[in-house]
Amino acid sequence: xxxxxxxxxxxxxxxxxxxxxxxxxxxxxxxxxxxxxxxxxxxxxxxxxxxxxxxxxxxxxxxxxxxxxxxxxxxxxxxxxxxxxxxxxxxxxxxxxxxxxxxxxxxxxxxxxxxxxxxxxxxxxxxxxxxxxxxxxxxxxxxxxxxxxxxxxxxxxxxxxxxxxxxxxxxxxxxxxxxxxxxxxxxxxxxxxxxxxxxxxxxxxxxxxxxxxxxxxxxxxxxxxxxxxxxxxxxxxxxxxxxxxxxxxxxxxxxxxxxxxxxxxxxxxxxxxxxxxxxxxxxxxxxxxxxxxxxxxxxxxxxxxxxxx
Length: 309
What we know:
This protein has about 300 residues and is α/β, with parallel strands linked by helices. It has helices at about 5-35, 65-70, 110-115, 130-140, 145-165, 200-205, 210-220, 245-250, 260, 280-290; strands at about 90-95, 105-110, 125-130, 190-195, 230, 255, 270-275, 295-305. It starts with a helix and ends in a 5-residue tail after the last strand.
């Protein structure tokens, strides 16, 4: 009896081939760790390998789990759109029909910062607050030699996006979320980074958000497009300006590549940056993308500033 190769031998060879390559990758990484152990760029300690099926697809990260856990601020409620804390109404009776009358829960109020800024993007994913160790890592990633650090932070940010897209979230819903979902947590179709003007890129030699976006796209298994957005005017540094000045500074500074944006009409786009403070730059980019036919825009940043304000 003749066995057709497409029905039996093909899948068997494919499965054995994938298992062999996976074993080869694991053995190679263990051998490299014995010869040159990886060191965390945050605490300068040797990184102990942890079994994670997601990280088998990406190179070894240079951030240890201890440093990663130290960034996770345990806030009571974080706004899904701007990633800032929201006020809480404590001991409010649950409005869910399935809950018992005796059960009581806490409901977060609507974010006043989002209502004031009128953000065009639907969701913001962050690794932590812009302070202490994470702030130091972000500053180091802006250096010429910070490319490996940017890629590692991007991979961690991609893992956080996968967690939030799968429904693993510790945030408290607002009173509007209890009635209807205003955004859908799904993995985006394409990843892009905040563009840098050619003069600033010539001085820095590298654009950190581009490398961060590469790490995010590697984990999400999505394409990354560096030509989708472009900077047409050299803006002032946002860190030295007030909120109103930042809003005026980003106007007419960015543009969309019309030829590239036609490929993603009706798609979901993820814009990646290193730090988000007021959100003026990301909001301007989201406005340009939505005007050119993009379905929805989400944002992912390494650190979120503005908690003190």
